[in-house]
Structures are given as structure tokens and as C-alpha cells.
Amino acid sequence: MLFGAHDNDEMDKIMQITVAFNHFGQGLTQRMPRCRWGFFHVLNNDYTHWEMYAIGGSAAPTILSQGNRFIAPDNPSAKEITHRNYATEEVWRNWQWQSEGDLLMNGATFIASGSPIKLRYKKGLIMKPRDGTHVPRLTKFAGALNCLVGSPC
């Protein structure tokens, strides 16, 4: 998932996206999601494998990760969940990326940055996450549909 047209398209600052109740499994390398500009609420997803990183971004996106389960791969160089593109640490350490209630397993690490995220939205407009321990039940039926052309799905 790549959200945002280009690092130079500042009009994407108004973008608000929620990524919820997905299972990201084997064979996925990165971009679960990859964010540019905007606000991204990543909640109650199940990340069981990744080859490079799970959540990435450039152009100063705000990312709030809540109640996800991250099971890092066995590869010691791929334990980090987060990845920032095209910015030095001096720049990205001001980007607002936070993890709340996430379940980090097998050495998974979420590198938080920036000041605390203060939601400016009415609470009724933001989904309330469950704790990461609930993710297996919440994503039990997530995944590709077994649909056939010409048959109901």
C-alpha cells in the first residue's frame, strides 16, 4: 500500500487514512503501508512476517499505530517495524510516529518519533483500537477471497 502521490505533492497533507483489520503475512517485503504526508491510523492489524519493514514513510507523515500485533521475522536485520525514506534522523525525529498498545514479538521494534500525537478529530470519527492481544481474533477471516469468475463471492 503506497499512500500519497509524490513527496513533492504537499496537497496530500489533508489525507486521512485508516488501515485496519488486515493480515500481512509471508512473502511481503514492505509498504504495509508506506505513507507520504497526511495522517495514518494503523490499527488492529496482524503482521506475522516482513522482509524489510512493515510501516514506512517519507515527507513527514503522521502515523499512529495502535493495537497491532507485530511478530518480527527471524532475520536479525529486519526486526525494525518502521522505516523512514529520504530523510536524515535529524529531520525524521520530528515526524510524529507513535505506537500505543501494540504487541511486539520476536524482537520487533517500533522507532517512535516526534511529539505526542494530539488528535484534533472528534472521538466518534476515530476508530477505537483493541489491545494487540486481540488481533488474532479480529483478523481471523482477513485475507484474499477465494472467488471464481462467474460465481458469487
Describe the structure.
This protein has 153 residues and is mainly beta. The chain has one domain (2-138): 3 Solenoid (Pectate Lyase C-like). It is built from two helices and twelve strands, in the order E-E-E-E-E-E-E-E-E-E-H-E-E-H. A four-stranded parallel β-sheet has the order 1-4-7-10, with no helix packed on it. A four-stranded parallel β-sheet has the order 2-5-8-11, with no helix packed on it. It has a four-stranded parallel β-sheet with strand order 3-6-9-12, with no helix packed on it.
How do you describe this structure in short?
The chain has 153 residues and is mainly β.
Structure classification:
mainly beta
Calculate Rg over CA atoms: 16 Å
The helical percent reads under 10%
What overall geometry do the principal axes of the alpha carbons give? Answer: globular
What is the third-level CATH name, the topology? Pectate Lyase C-like
CATH architecture: 3 Solenoid
Per CATH, the superfamily is Single-stranded right-handed beta-helix, Pectin lyase-like
Which residues sit in consecutive blocks of at least 5 with pLDDT less than 50?
A: none
Strand order of the largest sheet: 1-4-7-10
Total helices: the number is 2
What's the domain count?
Answer: 1
Characterize the biggest β-sheet.
4 strands, parallel
In terms of DSSP E residues, the strand content is 25-35%
